[in-house]
Amino acid sequence: MENINTSQELFINIRKSIRLLYEYQKRMQGTMFHIKSVLNLSPAGRIEVNKLFSCAPRLSKDYGETQLSRGNWAWDYLYPMAMEYYLGEKKINGDDFCLSAIQVTDDGYYKAKQQDLPVDRLDTYTYSSSEDSNSVVLFVMEIKSNDSSWAKRWKRDTMEYNLNKWMIDSRTIIDDITKQGNHFIVMKFSLTDLLSDTSIYNVLCKISEHLQELTGKAII
User: Fold this and answer.
1) DSSP-H helix ranges across 145-215
2) Are strands 58-59 and 173-177 parallel, antiparallel or unpaired?
3) CA nearest 114: which of 165, 74, 160?
4) Under 8 Å between Cβ of 188 and 172
5) Spatial distance between the Cα atoms of 184 and 176, rounded to a whole number of angstroms
6) In the chain, how long is the greatest CA-to-CA distance?
7) Residue from 85, 81, 76 nearest 56 by CA
8) Is residue 133 within 8 Å of residue 127, measured between CB atoms?
9) Pairing mode, if any, of strands 136-144 and 173-177?
10) Which of 97, 92, 124, 101 is closest to 111 using CA atoms?
11) DSSP states of 110-160 as a string?
């Protein structure tokens, strides 16, 4: 905003930004439902969402839908910064598979942390520059047998904690084994890889190929 000369110019840019953000989020929601449909994940018709990077606004018991206090961050009302879409579950050759996609619109905070720079979530000027940052999606998945149980990682606060670790990890594929002996996998892609049905399918094929190599089971 330091390059904006007048208040009129400032609010013109804000109006452009909010409209662009709307179009972006509309596209992301459609993309997530498309991925869910391609993979035939259950339940159909809905996606569970967790707001990450900061907490969602507290529901109000009085007049408003939500309650704004002095302790709220502005980020609390900006969901697209980092959102988890729990896309659902399916059976793969008798085993259970579940998948989340985490949309990280701006990884500048994590980039600065990765470089051990002093960074504050509430001061965007401490983030890596927009030009040096990226927009990424993390596909988080687990495969378990019928007699096993899901890892306790499928909770909002745990996902937030792990996202901080995954984002400063330079690996694009993170394979892990849970205490229950299940495969727990994180694969990172650029959000630009989700701009068309063809590129989305290519991403899902890469995920399926990795699962096939790791577990002998494919999702496509």
Assistant:
1) 156-168, 197-215
2) unpaired
3) 165
4) yes
5) 5
6) 64
7) 76
8) yes
9) unpaired
10) 124
11) HHHHHTT---BTTBGGGSPPTTT---EEEEEEEEE-TTS---TT-SHHHHH
Residue 184: strand, helix, or coil: strand
Edge-to-edge strands of the sheet including 95-104? Answer: 48-51, 82-92, 95-104, 136-144, 183-190, 173-177
Closest to 19 (Cα-Cα) out of 8, 7, 11: 11
pTM over 0.85: yes
pLDDT digits (tens, 9 = 90+) for 76-130: 999 999 999 999 999 999 999 999 999 999 999 999 999 999 999 999 999 999 9
Q: How long a stretch of residues is the chain?
A: 220
Spatial neighbors of 83 by CB under 8 A, at least 6 apart, are 49, 50, 51, 52, 102, 103
Tokens standing for residue 11 = 């609010």
Nearest CA among 92, 106, 17 for reference residue 53:
106
The pairing of beta strand 95-104 with beta strand 173-177: unpaired
Residue 176 three-state SS: strand
Q: In angstroms, rounded to a whole number, what is the distance separating the alpha carbons of residues 104 and 135?
A: 6
**Helix (H/G/I), strand (E/B), else coil: 191:** helix
